[in-house]
Amino acid sequence: MRHHTRVKDLSLTGTRLGNYSIEGLLGQGGMGRVYRALQHGPGGFTRPVAIKVLRDPGQQLIKDADETMAREARTVARLQHRNIVQVLDYVCEQGIDMLVLELVDGVTLKTLLRASSASGTPRRATPIRSSS
To answer: Which residues contact 132 (CB under 8 A, 6 or more apart)?
Structure first.
C-alpha cells in the first residue's frame, strides 16, 4: 500500500504536483475533490485540465478507494462520447493519486438541473450507446 498525503489537511491550490500546477478547487463530493489545474509539457506546452483526487487518501472512506479511482480511470478512458470528459492521465505525485481529465468550462450539472426545474422545462438525457 502506498503512503498518501491527507488531502483534507492540505490545500492543493497554488501547489505543483509533477507536471501540474493546481489553480483552484472546482468542486467536491463524497469520494473526491476536483481542481482546475494547468498541465506543463515540453517546449512551454501548457493546457488547462481538471484533476480529481481522493478526498482523504490514507483514510479509507470507502473500502479500497485507490482501486476504485483506478478502475474509474480505466473505465472512463474506454468511453468516447461528446458528453463524457476524456481521461488524459492517471498518476501518483507526492503520494496523491490524481485522475487528470479534460477541463470543460461551463455550468455545473447541478446548476443546469436547478435552472431546468425552475423553468418547468424538463431536460432529456442523451442516451449513451456502446460502440462494442
So the answer is: none
